[in-house]
Design a protein that fits this description.
CATH architecture: Alpha-Beta Barrel
Number of strands: 8
CATH superfamily: Metal-dependent hydrolases
Structural class: alpha/beta
CATH topology: TIM Barrel
Order of helices and strands: EHHEHHEHEHEHEHEHHEHH
Strand content: 5-15%
Number of helices: 12
Helix content: 25-40%
């Protein structure tokens, strides 16, 4: 069982879903836009059974309609995560509308639209965290490693909220080193925090000539396999076919036991997004 926790979709219909990037524009939106139906075909060919559609802020900003409607159309295989402005007036109510009215199941806090996003642990965001806890949805956080102290403060304050740290917070990797940064390992003491690793991380480990097995064994020893999950980052990462990304993940974790691989590549994701279990044995 394989679940991709990090994919993006972009519609071909620019009239109904006009591009409106918020804060940054990435080349993949124009160079490699992938519709939901096209994505699902790629997943099927790669034997990836389920997917979490993550709102593409670089395509649609806070307009989550295409991501939400895509997941609703393909609810047997997909769920979705919205992005909102967490410090906007009424942000918590906005989040609840996307969840209750549009069926989205998670929110992503995206810090990369600002040179130095200081709002991650600002009290102005607390109503969003509180509402996420009340709704029982995970919070995905996109951030860089230097913001880990801010993340710690909100994770400590909201222990009832499941948190998924996107791309391992993009840790800086020393050439030839296989040891995860200590500030990343330190997050293991928060049982509500999960790590989401992606093709971005696997590529970075290869470039740094790190021992990937040692790197992930240290993460597993600290967090346990039940708090780690894979995502492709497709098509934001589009330098190879989707199937090669899925195969890279399978090959990378061949050193694990079958049970460990099941959690890392699927079961952890299903624990955060249980609606994806529909139709499974």
């Amino acid at each position: 069982m394989m679940v991709d926790t990090h994919v993006h979709v972009v519609s071909e219909d620019r009239q109904r879903y006009p591009l409106q990037p918020t804060g940054l524009t990435l080349s993949w939106v124009e160079a490699m836009p992938v519709t939901t139906e096209s994505l699902l075909q790629r997943l099927e060919e790669a034997h990836v059974e389920r997917a979490v559609l993550v709102q593409a802020i670089s395509a649609y900003g806070y307009d989550n309609r295409y991501t939400a409607e895509s997941a609703q159309r393909h609810a047997d295989r997909c769920t979705s995560v919205c992005i909102i402005d967490p410090v906007a007036p009424g942000a918590a109510d906005t989040l609840e509308q996307w969840v209750r009215e549009r069926g989205m199941w998670g929110v992503r806090l995206f810090t990369a639209t600002e040179p130095e996003a200081t709002w991650l642990d600002d009290e102005a965001t607390f109503p969003v965290w509180q509402r996420a806890g009340a709704l029982g949805i995970p919070v995905c956080v996109q951030m860089r490693a230097h913001q880990i102290p801010r993340l710690r403060r909100v994770v400590e304050r909201f222990p009832e909220v499941s948190v998924a740290l996107d791309h391992l917070a993009g840790p800086r990797l020393e050439e030839g080193s296989s040891t995860p940064p200590p500030e990343l390992l330190d997050l293991a003491r928060y049982p509500n925090l999960h790590l989401k690793f992606s093709t971005v991380n696997l590529d970075a480990l290869a470039r740094a000539r790190a021992n990937t097995e040692d790197f992930f064994r240290r993460l597993i020893d600290a967090f346990g396999v039940r708090r780690l999950m894979w995502g492709s980052n497709y098509p934001a990462t589009y330098d190879r076919p989707y199937g090669e990304m899925a195969e890279l993940a399978r090959r990378t974790f061949a050193f694990l036991s079958e049970d460990e691989r099941e959690w890392l590549l699927g079961e952890t994701a299903l624990s955060l997004w249980p609606e994806l279990r529909k139709g499974l044995p």
